Amino acid sequence: MGIRFILMVNKQGQTRLAQYYEYLTLEERRALEGEIVRKCLARNEQQCSFVEHRNYKIVYRRYASLFFLVGVDNDENELAILEFIHLLVETMDRHFGNVCELDIMFHLEKAHFMLEEMVMNGCIVETSKTNILQPIQLMEKSS
Amino acid sequence: MASTTSSIMDTLFQRTLEDLIKGLRLQIIGESAFISKALDEIRREIKSTDSHTKSNALQKLSYLSSLHHFDMSWAAFHVVEVMSSSRFSHKKIGYHAASLSFSDSTPVLLLITNQLRKDLTNPNNEFEVSLALECLSRIATTDLCRDLTPEIFTLLSSTKIFVRKKAIALVLRVFEKYPDAVKVCFKRLVENLDSTDPHIVSAVVGVFCELTSNDPKSYLPLAPEFYRILVDSKNNWVLIKMLKIFAKLVLLEPRLAKRIVEPVCEHMRRTGAKSLMFECVRTVVSSLSDYEEAVKLAVVKIRELLLDDDPNLKYLGLNALSIVAPKHLWAVLENKEVVIKWLSDEDPNIKRESLRLVMAMVSENNVVEICRVLVNYALKSDPEFCNEILGSILSTCSRNLYEIVNDFDWYVSLLGEMSRILHCQQGDEIENQLIDICMRVRDVRPELVRVGRDLLIDPALLSNHFLYRILSAAAWVSGEYVEFSRNPFELIEALLQPRTNLLPPSIRAIYIQSAFKVLIFCLHSYLLQRESTASSYPDTSALSELASKREMPEGSDSATFKAPSHSEQDEVFNPRVSNQSFEELSVGNGGDRTISHGQTSTPVTSENSFTYEAVVNHLNLIELALGPLTGSHDVEILERVRNLLCFIELIKGEVLESLVQKEENLNSAEMKSSKIIKLMSDAFSEELGPVSVSAQERVPIPEGLVLKENLNDLEMICGDIQLPSSISFSLVSNHYEEGVGASLPDLQSKEELEPPSEATSLLAEHRKRHGLYYLSSEKNDIVANDYPPANDPKLRDNQNNDTEDLVKLTEQLLVSKKRPNQAKPRPVVVKLDGDVVPVSAKRPGPKDDSLSGAVQEVLLGSDTRTSTSRSNPSDKSSSKRKGKEKLITDPSFELNDNLGDAEKLDHENPSSRRSKHRTHGKERRHKSPGKIREEREENGQKEKKKSSHRHARHKTRQRADVPLNVVSETPVIPDFLL
Question: Which residue, B68, B602, B636, B730, has most beta carbons within 10 Å?
Answer without folding.
Answer: B636
